[in-house]
Protein: ATP-dependent Clp protease adapter protein ClpS
Organism: Prochlorococcus marinus
Amino acid sequence: MSIIKLEKGDNNNAAVLEKKTAALKNKSPKYKVLLHNDPVNSMEYITIALREVVPQLSEQDAIAIMLEAHNNGVGLVIVCDLEPAEFYSESLKSKGISSSIEKDE
């Protein structure tokens, strides 16, 4: 949301565009991509699949996420906008890996 203010200058009136700080802080909501424990696929397969689907994950990150899901039932893969979150989750599902998304608080 923007507000236009007229200010007197030396020669003419000048239009100045001001943005409300609240409008700048209004960001799109983020979503968590969750990996669920998988008793079917091997740990190695899940680690490889995580790195293929989310290329910014290091091997160590992928292993940590896989172990978190294995030990706790669910692991946090990434927090991002809705569209990439849906893509990541669906890509994991297409590889036979259980995944879901939920809104980040």
Remarks:
- Residues 31-103 form a domain with the Ribosomal Protein L30; Chain: A, fold (CATH 3.30.1390.10).
- DSSP finds four helices and five strands in the chain.
- Strands lie at 2-8, 13-19, 31-36, 74-80, 99-103.
